[in-house]
Amino acid sequence: MSIEKKDIEELIRLRMAQRGVGGRDIKFFLEAWRNLENSDEQLAWQDVQPAAADDVGQLPAVGSEAERRLLRVGLENMARCAIVKLNGGRSTTMGGKVPKCTLPAKDGKSFLEIVLGQVMSVNDSLGIEMPLILMNSFFTGQKSSEIVGRTPLIIMDFIQNEYPRTRVDNLHPLETGSEEDWCPGGHGDFFASLYGSGLLADLLELGFRYVFISNIDNLSAEVSPLILGNMVAGNHDFVMEVTRKTDADLKGGSPVIYRDNLTMLEIAQVPDSYLGEFQDIDRFSYFNTNNLWVDLRALDTLLVNNELRLPVIQNRKRICDTEVIQIETAMGAALQCFARPALLEVPRSRFAPVKRMEDLHFLQSEAFVLNEEFQVRRNPDWSSP
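Now predict its structure.
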């Protein structure tokens, strides 16, 4: 390593420490940054096999004895489950400059207000105190606290790590003197940030065993005792909800078998010459909804032993007229780290994210209703024009 590169590395280390990033996560970033010069090393496409139907579990038939059994198991374990919402996003893809969780989603209520209502409704119906955990960014933390205010819910939160954006031309950190110099570490940072914040240890000490994780903009991702029962009965330590890919999901990540290991493949990892094949919905027929269930004990063991190693994704963007690389990870790739992971096919109704203004307007329309349990449902009286 040249003297200049050592100096740049020390500058990055200092800036990240001043930003509040922990030593363990600084080390991860610097390892990934050093490897940026090897960016020509790409995925060995010939070793990629799409997950097939035999690799994906199914929920039991509605009304069956198997369903009733899994429901019983799930309900018995709901009090040991916490709900996590990935809440660090801005509304930039929708032309906004405010946290997405603050946008009016339905009947004048914001995404976060609806989520609060959903969790309170479940707690009231089951007589439990399931906490809501928010993974915020520096951008969303304060605004989320204002919305939460005083609530009977147990609310926990932590801030996901931010990483320096790196210039493509010289691999130096972007230095505009603004917040544009920083970017979130991708939702794969959830695991490290939960651990580094001390919240993982707190949850285990309080007796919680499982977490259900989903995006704040997917209001259809409600905690499910049936899926929790499926996880517990199957002795799985990581469950990814998947559904069949449509033409609307071409950018979504897909579960694959890579060199005999079950893992996730994001579009940013696919060599350009194979993008068409990756977006073939008949070949790569499943995609990750980013609704995930994790066994906290198994996660803690992996982190303590430094065995949760997620593939680095180089996400290229143009920021302030400069080509930059954002070093990110995807949480679905943790499939390859857990001992007993599972893919579970779920109904499409559990995946209805809001990514564009068209999605938001559709959600706000008469096509959907918000019921007393704060569940968003299709309006049975609505017909498409």
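The longest helix spans residues 3-19.
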